[in-house]
Design goal:
single chain; 372 residues; six-stranded parallel β-sheet; 47% helix; Glycosyl transferase
């Protein structure tokens, strides 16, 4: 059996989900590869689209939020959206690759390739089965204009929303959001800190900015410092945003309790080392944190899916959030002082966020293909 995982480089979350699925198939000795869907248009198109997305959400997040709301308003299974029309343009190239390589199943943690293969399937037919993986705790705009064989969604509570948007209930399977298996493994806190050369004593507050370094992190760290005890520390994972990291290092050079770190592949180990996590409410990072089981404080979201992710987690008691850096710091202080509240939050995460979503997706696909 041959499986193709298709993602896009619009943020790190979709690719992280894709890699988790890829890992799951490879562990089962299934022939599987992962590709950037937009590269079938061209590498230049992929870079232009990805760069435009990153610039919009970093420079003009309110504009991005407006576009998201507008997309939700016009999204309909009865007409083709601009997103659908744009992704039609490389349908022949992607469809031909799937057919010529005799791909049996295409798993997509991103809307764009699902739109593309929907168009190809309508025009030419498609032998491969297709699966769309939701990487946010919401039915995103334009999902309903795709014709895939199955939607893998994060939580049973979201089924009514997907159905209201026009997706047949019989096509929905609740699996959770796929994350790497390393988030389900737990390293003792002392060992994790030793491996990362972090201070052995005191509370460690981890601040994540996302793969591209979003957020008003300097204001947040400034608000956190007054609540810290002398032995406590703040570690900021600055992603790939070199300007942000330089500014933070200059701003907090006077306080040895603040460490600003570069992009890392060891986020799971940092979570093991930490006592609290501050992160924007991206679907993947939030899920990784919940699978790891760490008290979670959501920072300012990118308007759109992240706002809804934050609301979903908050309503189920899996995270807390506030509108200001000072409010976020007060929440951290409260959690640090109340171990029973931290324990209750972690329990709610365990009850609502499965650690084995990638395995569930792989096994479903293989079962449908008669491989297990």
């Amino acid at each position: 059996m041959k499986v193709l995982v298709l993602s896009c480089n619009t943020g790190g979350g979709h690719n992280a989900a894709g890699r988790a699925i890829l890992e799951g198939f490879l562990r089962r000795d299934v022939q599987c590869e992962m590709r950037d869907a937009l590269s079938f248009a061209s590498e230049r198109v992929s870079k232009v689209v990805s760069d435009a997305y990153i610039r919009t959400v970093t420079v003009a997040p309110k504009l991005f939020g407006w576009c998201y709301r507008a997309g939700g308003a016009i999204s309909s299974a009865r007409r083709k959206s601009p997103v659908y029309l744009g992704n039609m343009m490389y349908a022949r190239a992607l469809g031909a690759y799937v057919e010529e390589n005799r791909i049996d199943a295409v798993v997509m943690p991103h809307l764009f390739p699902a739109e593309t293969l929907t168009h190809y399937k309508r025009r030419f037919g498609l032998r491969a089965r297709t699966y769309l993986v939701s990487t946010d705790y919401v039915c995103c705009p334009f999902f309903e204009e795709t014709e895939v064989d199955r939607f893998f969604i994060p939580h049973a509570a979201l089924v009514p929303e997907f159905v209201r948007r026009g997706i047949p209930r019989e096509k929905l399977t609740v699996t959770g959001i796929p994350v790497s298996a390393r988030y389900a493994r737990h390293t003792p806190k002392a060992e994790a800190r030793e491996r990362l050369a972090l201070p052995e004593r005191g509370n460690l507050l981890l601040v994540m900015t996302g793969s591209m370094g979003f957020g008003h992190v300097d204001r947040l760290v400034d608000a956190i410092l007054p609540i810290l005890e002398p032995e406590d520390h703040v570690a900021v994972l600055g992603g790939n945003n070199e300007i942000l990291k330089k500014r933070l290092r200059e701003t907090f050079a006077w306080d040895a309790r603040v460490q600003v770190l570069d992009f890392t592949e060891r986020v799971d180990l940092f979570m093991d080392a930490a006592d609290l996590l501050f992160t924007k409410p991206g679907g993947l990072t939030t899920t990784e944190a919940a699978v790891k089981g760490i008290p979670l404080i959501h920072t300012h979201p990118i308007p759109g899916c992240e706002t809804l992710n934050m609301e979903f987690f908050g309503e189920l008691g899996m995270s807390v959030s506030a509108d200001t850096p000072e409010g976020l710091a007060r929440l951290a202080q409260d959690l640090l002082r109340r171990p029973e509240k931290r324990a209750a939050m972690i329990q709610r995460q365990r009850e609502n966020v499965p650690a084995n979503a990638a395995d569930a997706i792989c096994e479903f696909v293989l079962r449908e293909a008669g491989e297990i």
